[in-house]
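Bench log. Compound arrived from synthesis this morning; before running ITC I wanted a structural hypothesis for how beta-D-glucopyranose sits in the protein. Inputs:
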Amino acid sequence: MHWLGLEGRTALVTGGSSGIGRAIAEELGRCGVKVGVNYNSGQEAAEEVVRGIRDRGGEAIAIGGDVSKPEDCKAMVEQVVDRFGRLDILVNNAGIQRDAPFTELTLEDWRRVIDTNLTGAFLCAQEAVRRFRQQRPLPNAKARGNIIFINSVHQLIPWAGHVNYAASKGGLKLLMETLAQEVAHEKIRVNAIAPGAIRTPINRPAWEEESALNELLELIPYGRIGEPEDVANAAAWLASDLSDYVIGATLFIDGGMSLHPPFREGG
Ligand code: BGC
């Protein structure tokens, strides 16, 4: 048995085909969780994640769907339940960036980011909570259901040139906290992780070249970029009963990025 005791539980990880979502899906798989690996455009990548989990003896399925569409979110949860019998954990991870200076940002790119990052998380959480209420709690689990939002340091740190993204993440913070407050009495646990700069495709320009990476490292007191596994380890703990008394919390996994590093000197 794995020390987190997650064996036999089931999870849906949105945006599970790449980056942080992929690492979380893989880590949950290693912990014995049966995983629905959602993808929107990356079907092949999602199938590769599924194969990897199965090769290590776990169970997983790839599930297509656009989190910004209510019917897709419903169908995604249904597919997990059809295949694995229940849903215990939702990881609201799917997120995108469409960056532009403020006056050049199109309404379309404003909407796409809000639709995926904020509305998508709302819709999936709604489906998950409905499902948690319908099913019998697992006899060996302390909570009835568990939702983990993957937010960002930009729920806190304003980010010039990324107003749609920052607005979506600021909104996500109070969506998470409000939902946590609303459903805690039903033994549904809701929490978030706020990653800093993690080496994934979403921020490739920030780490691919040495000069960009050096600039980025100025913002990270711990002196290294984060790896998807740094976030995945925390997600597995938040999904487990070891964090049972953690409600509405945001765990910053950012090497200190949110600690105002320019204030190391001066101020
Ligand atoms: C963004 C990345 C960025 C990081 C730190 C994340 O939420 O998606 O592009 O590198 O925040 O600024």
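What the model suggests: The longest helix spans residues 107-134. The first strand starts at residue 10 and ends at 13.
ITC booked for Thursday regardless.
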